[in-house]
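Appendix C: a fully annotated inverse folding record. The material below is reproduced so that readers can follow the format used throughout the book. The structure is listed first as tokens, followed by the designed sequence.
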């Protein structure tokens, strides 16, 4: 087992947990498998011990372990009660608890019967279903965890960003590793786009073959445990065709950032002959495809983004988009090559906005689109993402939708090659890599 002091910090998430420490809500950490939830629990445990909590006040149960995975809900309750120290507040950590049937009964009973602070992780959004919410009567707070950001990727790989003065007096940023080797920022970003942000990549290094093995394990675990097995545990038979599931995954991975309708997915798979090996002669129903897509959303493999009519100020029902939780999983599915790099960097920006706490939608203005509208309670940004702003044609394409928006919120174009202009009529032109590092 990795010792907590050897774990890399994920301060964005750890600080959120610390902020909710010793409050009534159950802290529920959600996210795709292997994105760092278990390590976050260990970091929180280390924090508790550093601040004077005694080890005997902490109960840690990982339900992927043989020691606990066959437990019943009643057995979980009995185990914790047996560990409880009289007169002391207990800190309970339940990792991947969704594997226990009726687990919410145990958590709710412990919350009522013990003086305790409860932390739960799960790899499926079913964990926060209406049934669960009813049990806890809203007494839970969700902390959504994502794979590593670009900044975290550099930190985890022991890269350091260093600034040097250029000959013209400006500032130039470069990357150096722990051996003192220097790299350009663009090189490090290309490594991130290839190897992605799953923390396990750190253990195998930036080695393509080893990375593929790791990603294959993540993919198989998500599909088998979090989708197919979960269907069995729930006693449902909606997700029964592994071939169809994989084909839908491949389709969505190949079409990140594109307008996709549920009705078109099955028809496209059949028309392109992609379902022939399953013996299927006709397209699956839209209801069936929706069930499979919902399962992928629930397992945090893909995220759906809705369209928002900027003038009409309403969400639209048609043609949302899907983004994959980690760009390396797309590389694993479709091959390591320059595939649709424009949508790939869009994918990175979308998840960075989620990390920074924004609600994100696609913007529609007349017959044009703005890549992202990012909002918080008191802030709004309109963001376009493109590879280069060097050509007049691209500048016109990216700027025109933003110019049509008549409010005074910030408007930004993010690109790998912003050109020489820092702004166009008040629209900022920013370097994408610098924006990612400004986290």
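Designed amino acids, in order:
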């Amino acid at each position: 087992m990795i010792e907590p002091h050897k774990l890399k910090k994920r301060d964005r998430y750890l600080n959120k947990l610390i902020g909710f420490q010793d409050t009534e809500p159950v802290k529920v950490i959600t996210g795709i498998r292997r994105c760092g939830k278990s390590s976050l629990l260990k970091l929180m445990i280390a924090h508790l011990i550093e601040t004077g909590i005694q080890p005997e006040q902490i109960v840690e149960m990982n339900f992927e372990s043989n020691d606990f995975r066959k437990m019943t809900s009643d057995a979980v309750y009995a185990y914790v009660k047996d560990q409880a120290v009289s007169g002391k507040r207990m800190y309970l950590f339940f990792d991947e608890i969704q594997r226990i049937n009726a687990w919410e009964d145990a958590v709710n009973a412990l919350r009522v019967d013990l003086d305790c602070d409860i932390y739960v992780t799960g790899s499926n959004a079913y964990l926060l279903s209406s049934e669960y919410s009813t049990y806890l009567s809203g007494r839970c707070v969700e902390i959504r965890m994502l794979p590593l950001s670009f900044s975290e990727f550099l930190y985890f790989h022991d890269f350091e960003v260093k600034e040097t003065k250029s000959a013209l007096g400006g500032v130039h940023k470069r990357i150096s590793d722990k051996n003192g080797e220097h790299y350009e920022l663009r090189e490090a970003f290309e490594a991130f786009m290839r190897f992605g942000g799953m923390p396990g990549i750190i253990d195998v290094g930036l080695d393509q073959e080893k990375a593929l093995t790791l990603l294959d394990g993540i993919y198989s675990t998500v599909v088998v445990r979090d989708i197919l097995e979960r269907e069995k545990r729930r006693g449902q038979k909606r997700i029964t065709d592994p071939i169809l599931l994989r084909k839908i995954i491949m389709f969505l991975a190949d079409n990140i950032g594109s307008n996709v309708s549920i009705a078109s997915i099955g028809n496209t798979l059949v028309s392109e002959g992609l379902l022939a090996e399953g013996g299927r002669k006709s397209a699956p129903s839209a209801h069936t495809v929706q069930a499979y897509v919902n399962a992928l959303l629930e397992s945090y493999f893909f995220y759906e983004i809705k369209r928002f009519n900027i003038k009409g100020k309403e969400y639209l029902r048609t043609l949302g988009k899907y983004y994959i939780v980690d760009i390396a999983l797309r590389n694993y599915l479709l091959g390591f090559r320059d595939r649709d790099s424009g949508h790939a960097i869009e994918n990175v920006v979308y998840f960075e906005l989620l990390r920074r706490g924004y609600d994100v939608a696609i913007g529609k203005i007349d017959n044009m689109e703005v890549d992202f509208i990012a909002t918080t309670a008191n802030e709004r940004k309109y963001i376009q993402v493109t590879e280069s702003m060097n050509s007049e044609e691209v500048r016109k394409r990216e700027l025109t939708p933003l110019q049509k928006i008549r409010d005074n919120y910030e408007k930004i174009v993010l690109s790998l090659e912003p050109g020489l202009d820092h702004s166009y009529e008040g629209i900022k032109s920013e370097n994408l890599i610098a924006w990612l590092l400004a986290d």
